[in-house]
Amino acid sequence: MKEAAPVVFVVDDDPMVCASMKRLIRTLGLEVQTFTSAQDFLRAKRPDAPGCLVLDVRLPDLSGLDLQQELAKAKIDIPVVFVTGHADIPMSVRAMKAGAVEFLTKPFREQDLLEAIQHGIGRHRTVREQRAAMGELQERVDLLTPREREVFPLVASGLLNKQIADQLGASEKTIKIHRGQLMRKMQANSLADLVRMSERLKLLSPRS
Q1: Rounded distance, CA 28 to CA 44, Å?
Q2: Residue ranges, CATH 1.10.10.10, the chain
Q3: Angle, helix 191-200 to helix 110-141, in steps of 10 degrees
Q4: Please, what CATH class does the domain formed by 143-200 belong to?
Q5: 31-35 and 51-56 beta bridge pairing
């Protein structure tokens, strides 16, 4: 499925700044949505697409730093680029510790902002791809029977069918069937594939 086009969100209480930012960011061929308050941004319906948030620190309701905190609480992982004319070291340290992509103090080079936005979109795209892959993996796990879920970590830990049978109190033939079903449902082409899936799912063998 084709990925949705990236979107850049700009939150600044000065409409002229929003308009200027919009013109600049559009030079990258990106869609831009502007907001004059943090609450307006929070209320807006955001598209399901990779993106980046360009955020002023001083805003009329929630500050930019408070908005960053609210997004983290809501598990909205959109990367943030701070842009401000009023900054101090503790402020920038707080923003970066909370995961900001960049903290730019006015006046700044336009190229620095554009590069930070591109970096943020790249980061968000990677996170979204990882989340989608994990979701697909979990869907496969949901197809497993309770017994196949027991067998999964044991197979991934390298145990032979006979060893698994002894541990679970089943016949070797039954475990062989479970192993085959497990490989098919997880779409694993090899034991190595299954091991990698087990690691990503953080499955541990009961004997661990």
Answers
A1: 23
A2: 143-200
A3: 110
A4: mainly alpha
A5: unpaired
Q: Which residues of 82-107 are buried (b: 16+ CB within 10 A; e: fewer)?
A: bbbeebeeebbeebeeeebbbbbeee
Can you tell me the distance from the alpha carbon of 101 to that of 81, in angstroms, rounded to the nearest whole number? 5
pTM here is 0.79
Which residue spans of the chain are classified as CATH 3.40.50.2300?
A: 7-135
Q: Which CATH class is domain 7-135?
A: alpha beta
How far is 6 from 31, CA to CA, in rounded Å? 7
pLDDT (tens digit, 0 to 9) for every residue of the chain, 208 residues total?
567 899 999 999 999 999 999 999 999 999 999 999 999 999 999 899 999 999 999 998 889 999 999 999 988 889 999 999 877 788 889 999 999 999 999 889 999 999 999 999 999 999 999 999 999 999 999 999 999 999 999 999 999 999 999 999 999 999 999 999 999 999 999 999 999 999 999 876 544 4
